[in-house]
Amino acid sequence: MVDVLGWRKLLGVIAPSTNTTVQPDMERMRPEGVTNHFSRIYVEDPLALSNEDFIAGTTAIAENTLDAVRSVMTCKPDYLVLGMSAITFYGGVQGSVDFKRKIEDFAGIGASTGAEAIAAALRAYGNIRTVSFVSPYYPVANAEVRRFLEESGFSVVRDTPLQCKRWTDIAKVTPDRLREVIAYLDGDDVDAIVQVGTNLSMVDLAAEYEAKLGKPVIAINTATYWHALRACGIEDRIDGLGSLLANY
């Protein structure tokens, strides 16, 4: 017997308790026969005024992740989608691998992380050598994203840390502000633009700017869910949310 609604796959989706973007984003991407089962990483909504504050806040997320995984595992998901991004970039490629391995060893099933999904998405397009990126982070975390991308074989030309002061403020960054950032990040020297920070709402804007710029614009929630679907052997092409889900 199989789950009546999730007859293809049950996905456990993990995100911070302050995050209001991952859940609606990933519901929009869900194919028929796949169900998402959300579990929240308990975290306060701290005021970040410095690099040190930001690192402390993301460390709290990392420390509480296994509790959220433990909770969602009671519904017996087939695979995990990790909808938090900063901590998946820390420590470069090896740090990302170690974090993923810790989650998978604990859960006993596979998982997709934001960091590996971004790298996989860039490789899927082919011929991507230079990138720029935007995040809601502070500069100290952008440095970790840059390190991961460069260790993954990509040259980072420009980046913008939006320095959101609270986790809940991330979801309040407007499309107009992000349009300004994309204009700064784009250029003839950039093959692709990347957005990280899973509470930053950019799925629709990324798809819009791909059409305008004629190059990949990758939103991390799109990349992470795409990576999870493909890892589970689900090859459905989903239109309207960018070329990654539509064509790869």
Q: Can you summarize this structure?
A:
It is built from eleven helices and eight strands.
Give the secondary structure arrangement, pairings included:
Elements (H helix, E strand, L loop, with lengths): L8 E8 L5 H7 L5 E8 L9 H22 L6 E4 L3 H4 L2 H16 L3 E2 L1 H12 L4 E6 L3 H13 L3 E7 L5 H4 L4 H11 L6 E4 L7 H11 L3 E3 H12 L11 H5 L1
Give helix and strand order, one letter per element, not per position: EHEHEHHEHEHEHHEHEHH
CATH topology of the largest domain: Rossmann fold
CATH class of the largest domain: Alpha Beta
Major sheet: arrangement of strands: 2-1-3-4
Q: Please give the number of β-strands.
A: 8
Give the class from helix and strand content and strand pairing.
Answer: alpha/beta
Uncertain segments are none
Query: What percent of residues adopt helix (DSSP H or I)?
Result: 40-55%
Task: Summarize the biggest pleated sheet.
Answer: 4 strands, parallel
Q: What is the overall shape?
A: globular
> How large a portion of the residues is in β-strands, by DSSP E?
15-25%
Radius of gyration: 17 Å
Total helical elements: 11
**Number of structural domains:** 2
Report how far apart the termini are. 31 Å
Average pLDDT over all residues:
96
The CATH architecture category of the largest domain equals 3-Layer(aba) Sandwich
